[in-house]
Amino acid sequence: MAIRNIRIQGDAVLEKKCRPVKEMTPRIRELVRDMFDTMYEQDGVGLAAPQVGVLKRIVVIDTGEDPHVLINPVIEETSGEQRGYEGCLSLPNKSGIVTRPDFVRVRAFDENMQEYVLEGTELLARAICHECDHLEGIMYTSLVEGRLYDNSELSQEGEEEE
Ligand code: NI
Question: Which residues are catalytically annotated?
Fold first, then answer.
């Protein structure tokens, strides 16, 4: 188990576009494991590789049901709308209101480079969108409606750090 340093907003690595993964290697397997460890340690529901300083198109998500690895994810379909608080491990203890689709279908590769399709609603849909944005160098703060809140201003319910 290895916890990696999470890059904080302001770090240029969070504003860069990530490169596709061409093949699975021991190094990338280790990165994926470390990303899960790091996400769980911080009680996050998602983490993207640039958040640990690696400009590769890799995302891990666990909203409490199943862990998902998404390599080279492509969002194929979205529908509906949800409006709610969103946070990010790269901007600790802050939240803002972001409108996202309420349904997302994403095509990606797993840790064995097998292609698969993942569909999500509610929090999973939000997490997929949020993490895929990281791969384009986009922080959720550019999508926030109104201002950012300190989490201490909000009730604990309904906040997720991604
Ligand atoms: Ni994030």
Answer: 131
